[in-house]
Specification:
This protein has about 400 residues and is of the alpha/beta class. About 45% of the residues lie in helices and about 15% in strands.
C-alpha cells in the first residue's frame, strides 16, 4: 500500500532558472504539483545571495529534484538519504562509484535532437552540412552531433564537424573565435549548420556576421533550446529546436512522487525529446540561394526595405541592368524584386502588429509605407484580415 501523507510534502528543487530550459522544467514541476499536489517547494536557483539548505533534513524535506548544475551542492546531495531524482545528469553521476548511481533520472534524447535537426535541413533541400558542438564537448553534445551525422549518412550525405577546443580556446572566446572564423570561411557553401545549443548558435551567427558570411544565404544556422532572449535578440533571429522541457519537469516530479509514496523502489531512466522547431530568419523555408547576385539583392532588401527603397535602389546597388536583375531574381526566387521588398515590409508590419502596441500610424512609418490606408489594403489582401483583427488574435 502506498504511503499516506499526513502533512504536505516538502520538496527541494535545484534548477538554474537564469536559463530558459530550466525555467520550462520548473514549469513542468509546477504543472504536476497543480494536478497531484499540493507540495511545499524550496527552489534553489544558484543565484547570488539566495538562501540554500545546508542539510535538507533540517527543513524536514521529503524529496529532492536536481538539475545538472549541482556545482557546490554535490556534497550536500551525496549525503542525503531522501528520495532524489536527477534531471539531465552528467555521465560521472551515473557511474557505479557515484553516490547518485542509485537515483532515478530524466534524460534528454540527445541523438533524437540531432535526428530532428537533420530531418529539418534535409526537408529544406540542403546538400552540405556542419555541426558545432558545445564548448566542453560533453556527452549530450556529442550525442546530438552523432544523431545529426548518422541521419545525414542514411540520406547519403556527410557532415563537417568543428574540432574540439584546447584549454586556451575554452577559456578565451577571442582566441577561439579566430579558429571558428577560419573554419567557417573554409566550409563549402551554402551549408546547413547545426549548433548544440542556442548560445553556441549565437556565437556562430556573430562570427559569420563579423566576417561578411551571409546568414542564412551562405550559412543557415539552427540551435537548440529555443531560448527566446537569445533567439529573438539576434539579427537575424535564430531558428531553434525546442526540447520538451515541460514534460521533462513533469516526469521528474512524477518519479519523485512515486518514490516519496513508496510506489517505486527501483531506479528508472526516462527520456524526453523534441517538442517543436521554431523557424526564424537564420534558416529558410525555400531552397538555398546560390546565385550571388540574388544573395546580394536579398541582403540589401532585408537591410533597407522598410526605409522606403524601391527596385531602382536595389538595381543601383547591384550595378547591373534592371532587366538582368529582374530575370536572375525571378529565376532564383520565383518572384520579382518588388515582391521581395513587399514581403520583407509586411513581415515587419506583422511583427509590429502582434508584438507591440504601436498605433497604425507608427507602424506605417516604421515599415516604409506612404499612407495608413495603403498599408491597410495591402495587409488585408496578404493576410485575409485587418490589422486590428490580427492584433486581437495575437
Amino acid at each position: 500500500m502506498p504511503k499516506i501523507f499526513t502533512q504536505t510534502p516538502r520538496v527541494v528543487v535545484i534548477l538554474e532558472t537564469c536559463v530558459q530550459p530550466d525555467r520550462e522544467k520548473l514549469n513542468g514541476i509546477f504543472k504536476y504539483v497543480r494536478f497531484y499536489g499540493p507540495w511545499h517547494l524550496h527552489i534553489i536557483q544558484n543565484r547570488v545571495g539566495e538562501q540554500r539548505l545546508a542539510h535538507f533534513e533540517t527543513w524536514d524535506a521529503n524529496g529532492v529534484i536536481v538539475g545538472q548544475s549541482m556545482l557546490d551542492m554535490e556534497e550536500t546531495l551525496a549525503r542525503t538519504k531522501l528520495p532524489l531524482v536527477l534531471i539531465d545528469p552528467l555521465p560521472r553521476h551515473l557511474t557505479p562509484s557515484s553516490p547518485f548511481s542509485r537515483c532515478s533520472h530524466v534524460q534528454n534524447d540527445s541523438a533524437g535532437v540531432g535526428v530532428a535537426a537533420a530531418d529539418y535541413f534535409l526537408g529544406h533541400g540542403f546538400k552540405r552540412f556542419a555541426y558545432v558542438g558545445e564548448v566542453l564537448d560533453r556527452l549530450w553534445s556529442r550525442g546530438r552531433g552523432q544523431g545529426f551525422a548518422d541521419r545525414l549518412r542514411e540520406a547519403g550525405f556527410t557532415c563537417q564537424n568543428y574540432v574540439p577546443l584546447t584549454d586556451a580556446e575554452i577559456n578565451d572566446w577571442a582566441v577561439e573565435q579566430s579558429k571558428l572564423t577560419r573554419w567557417l570561411a573554409a566550409l563549402p557553401k551554402p551549408v546547413a549548420l547545426f549548433a548544440a545549443m542556442d548560445i553556441r548558435a549565437r556565437q556562430v551567427l556573430d562570427t559569420c556576421l563579423m566576417n561578411n558570411i551571409k546568414v542564412p544565404d551562405e550559412v543557415a544556422i539552427l540551435g537548440v533550446d529555443n531560448d527566446e532572449q537569445l533567439c529573438l535578440g539576434s539579427a537575424p533571429t535564430l531558428s531553434s529546436i525546442e526540447c520538451d522541457m515541460g514534460q521533462c519537469g513533469f516526469m521528474a516530479a512524477q518519479l519523485l512522487d512515486e518514490q516519496m509514496r513508496g510506489k517505486r523502489k527501483r531506479k528508472v531512466m526516462l527520456t524526453y525529446g523534441v517538442k517543436k522547431i521554431a523557424e526564424r530568419q537564420s534558416t529558410q523555408a525555400e531552397q538555398p540561394v546560390q546565385d550571388q547576385l540574388v544573395v546580394r539583392a536579398i541582403e540589401f532588401i532585408r537591410l533597407n526595405a522598410c526605409e522606403g527603397i524601391g527596385v531602382t535602389e536595389v538595381v543601383a546597388h547591384l550595378k547591373v541592368s534592371r532587366r538582368l536583375a529582374e530575370l536572375r531574381f525571378r529565376k532564383t526566387c520565383g518572384r520579382s524584386i518588388l515582391d521581395e521588398i513587399q514581403k520583407v515590409r509586411l513581415e515587419r508590419v506583422k511583427r509590429l502588429v502582434t508584438e507591440t502596441d504601436f498605433s497604425i500610424r507608427e507602424i506605417t512609418d516604421r515599415s516604409g509605407y506612404q499612407t495608413d490606408d495603403h498599408l491597410r489594403r495591402i495587409f488585408k489582401r496578404q493576410f485575409g484580415m485587418t490589422m486590428r483583427e490580427c492584433r486581437r488574435q495575437g
